[in-house]
Amino acid sequence: MAGTILLTGGAGYIGSHTYVALKEAGYDVLILDNFGNAKHSVVGRLEQITGAPVTAVEGDVRDRSLLNQIFTEHQIDAVVHFAALKSVGESVEMPLRYLENNLGGLMVLLAAMEQAGCRRLVFSSSATVYGIPDETPTPETAPRRAMNPYGKSKIMSEEVLEELAAADPAWAFGVLRYFNPAGAHHSGLLGEDPRDVPSNLMPFVAKVALGELPLVKVFGSDYDTPDGTGVRDYIHVDDLARGHVLSLSALLAGKGGHLVNLGTGRGYSVLEIIAAYSAACGSDVPHQIVDRRPGDVPIYCARTERAEALLGFRTEKSLDEMCRSSWAWVTSQAAEPA
Ligand code: NAD
Ligand code: UFG
């Protein structure tokens, strides 16, 4: 059963991949993005991949009158809400900006949805809500611990959704806690395109492999992990996108809400990522061990049983596919005229 979906933040990294997955699943999709962290060229690329015109509204999710207009002009069946700011470091420097955009944006969106009678929403949460987990792999039942304003904005957003669902069973939310998204679309047309020097590992490794940055700084080699470097559960962005389609179809089929981890259940260390990327790009990526990065967690790894039981979600793509697709994407970008 398809329908019409509003995709906030649909021009961003995960949103653009999800756009393609939703179109492939037969949905009509409308993008709302302020292009604060996305290039306008993404829209043309989505048209190239899907072979159909893309409806993208340039605007802010905090603009209530714009949202009212969208819900009046379109019969929206559900919303997938990606629009948020996502830099942990920046959130520490600008907490108000993060709370205002991430939590404030969600509140405005929910109010507009309620007015329009649209009560199905898939929400982008994050493994960051677990803080430093007591248990790895980490189940969804683990306590939520805020480590920074970004993480707090995700915890508070989850709490808002829980309050609404408890007060009115007509609401149904799919809360998806992503582990570490990586990789790019197999077409080479979509991928992560950070405006500044990337702070996340894989895009940083990609820039070093391209020769745009001298070496990867490995933040700490004295963690209690097999090789001493930080371990993360990297999930291919195409798998993540598919998770959204499954979440949405569960909501639209009237199965009620769900809160699930989206990860592979398998962790890789920083050194393993560098080795896998070196194999994918065909040359050794230079690196150097430096001090730990303040605030870093030793290990993040997802328990995956709930997503499989509730949504039938299982990841399909390997670390090698994440590295190879990332490399194809960054080399295609580097070849383009500026
Ligand atoms: P992204 O920055 O690539 O995409 C977010 C998009 O939202 C951008 O296109 C941006 O222009 C847009 N946007 C931001 N604020 C907006 C606003 N107020 N109004 C309209 N548009 C707005 O980020 P992403 O990696 O695709 O992340 C998508 C979601 O997933 C975010 O909610 C993020 O917090 C969450 N998440 C990301 C990661 C990750 O590592 N990438 C991990 C866990 C959770
Ligand atoms: N790392 C390095 N060098 C770098 C960058 C990262 O050694 O230049 C290490 C980190 O110390 C960590 C691992 O690589 O051990 C992954 O770091 P990332 O910055 O790529 O990812 P994080 O797990 O720290 O954070 C990301 C997102 C958060 C999200 C979290 C969920 O940035 O928003 O994943 O797992 F909440």
Fold and architecture overview:
With 338 residues, the protein is α/β, with parallel strands linked by helices. Helices cover 42% and strands 17% of the residues. It has helices at residues 13-24, 41-50, 64-73, 88-93, 95-116, 149-167, 201-210, 237-252, 270-281, 305-311, 319-335, and strands spanning 4-8, 28-33, 55-58, 78-81, 120-126, 172-178, 180-182, 216-219, 231-232, 234-236, 258-262, 268-269, 287-290. The strands form four sheets. A seven-stranded parallel sheet has the order 3-2-1-4-5-6-11, with helices on both faces. Helix 3 (64-73) packs parallel to helix 5 (95-116). The longest helix has 22 residues, at 95-116. It is globular and about 55 Å long. The mean pLDDT is 96. The chain binds nicotinamide-adenine-dinucleotide (NAD) and uridine-5'-diphosphate-4-deoxy-4-fluoro-alpha-D-galactose.
